[in-house]
Design goal:
The protein has 335 residues and is of the alpha/beta class. The chain has helices spanning 39-51, 67-77, 110-124, 144-156, 170-179, 200-207, 228-233, 250-268, 272-281, 296-302, 312-325; strands spanning 5-7, 14-16, 18-21, 56-58, 86-91, 93-94, 105-106, 129-134, 160-166, 184-186, 210-213, 288-292.
């Protein structure tokens, strides 16, 4: 079956409900890396996803301090032009190449955004970026109106096709919307991290803003093969080793929630990964989910989410389990 497609808000872009996330593609030599990663495997995974029907790739300038964009550029260059996916990337995190493990500064100054877009265009090897996003709100004192005005100018100049934001709250979204329409929003959203279902996803639905959620499998927890042994085997530089979600007491509850998804996956003849991703896609306003992979076979684990529709009974069962286990605090079920 062909992967389902949805409009990205009113941007004019149509995307498959699952897209390839290339955070891990950046490798492990930076502050939020996933440990060592083979570039050839990354390229194989990207091309496998595209050949299976995935129509978009999400990356960011910060991933591997530019390395992810370079790998994505190499991957899409080897795909026939007619079959190439849309490219989404992000800006406004200023890193320090000489100190790769130093946390980046959230800098959305217009001059830095312009510098970033030129770098991204070069690394990706494209003439225009399909969706360009501010990765995190500025922390240097730049008014969001100035940042968003610069993003709008990039559209007017033809350097980018659509513009969006990631990790913004409703107040910032309102301020951006008064300057120019926000084409897309990228929030964290999964069965474990459900906070976006309270406010920003409903805001987006009400304003014609597309939503592409990130970490729908909770960075690997809500997958069939996840285990405590996997955590123990993670590289020393893998950012997840220090994340609360991968440490007790949260880890025990999260694994129990993952285990509870197995019966639903069996009923549908699919994977736990697909169920977890399909749960995010069941929320009104969500256009698509960004799903990562480090090798081609991992893509096959979540691809079925692109055609999977969870029933009302499935959603009720998942909600009851999340409440019983005490995982997360936000809404447990889409309306």
């Amino acid at each position: 079956m062909a992967i389902h497609k949805r409009p990205l808000g009113i941007s004019g872009l149509e995307i498959t409900t699952v897209g390839f996330g290339s955070w891990a593609v950046g490798g492990g030599e930076w502050a939020f890396g996933w440990g060592p990663q083979d570039d050839d495997e990354s390229i194989s995974a990207i091309r496998h996803a595209v050949s299976a029907g995935v129509t978009w790739i999400d990356t960011a300038a910060i991933y591997g301090l530019g390395h992810s964009e370079e790998v994505v550029g190499r991957a899409v260059a080897g795909i026939p032009a007619a079959d190439r996916p849309l490219i989404f990337t992000k800006c406004a995190l200023e890193a320090y190449p000489a100190e790769p493990f130093k946390p980046a500064v959230r800098n959305a100054a217009p001059a830095f955004i312009r510098l970033e877009v030129e770098r991204s265009l070069r690394r990706l090897g494209v003439e225009r970026i399909d969706l360009y996003q501010i990765h995190w709100p500025d922390e240097t004192g730049v008014p969001v109106e100035d940042s968003w005005g610069e993003m709008a100018r990039l559209v007017d100049e033809g350097k980018v096709r659509a513009i969006g934001v990631s990790n913004f709250d409703v107040a910032l979204l309102d301020r951006c919307e008064r300057v120019r329409h926000v084409d897309s929003l990228q929030p964290q959203f999964s069965l474990i991290h459900r906070g976006s279902g309270i406010d920003v996803i409903p805001w987006a639905a009400a304003h014609g803003t597309g939503v592409i959620v990130y970490s729908p499998m909770a960075s690997g927890i809500l997958t069939d093969s996840f285990s405590r042994d996997r955590v123990a085997a993670m590289g020393e530089k893998d950012w997840r080793r220090k994340s609360d979600s991968f440490l007790d007491p949260a880890l025990t509850k999260n694994i129990a929630l993952r285990d509870a998804l197995k019966s639903i996956a069996q009923r549908h003849g699919t994977t736990v990964s697909a169920v977890a991703v399909a749960w995010t896609l069941a929320w009104p306003g969500v256009s698509g989910a960004i799903v990562g992979a480090r090798k081609p076979e991992q893509v096959d684990g979540w691809l079925p989410a692109g055609t999977l529709a969870l029933s009302a009974a499935d959603l009720d069962e998942i909600a009851a389990t999340a409440e019983r286990l005490g995982v997360g605090t936000a809404p447990v079920r889409p309306k």
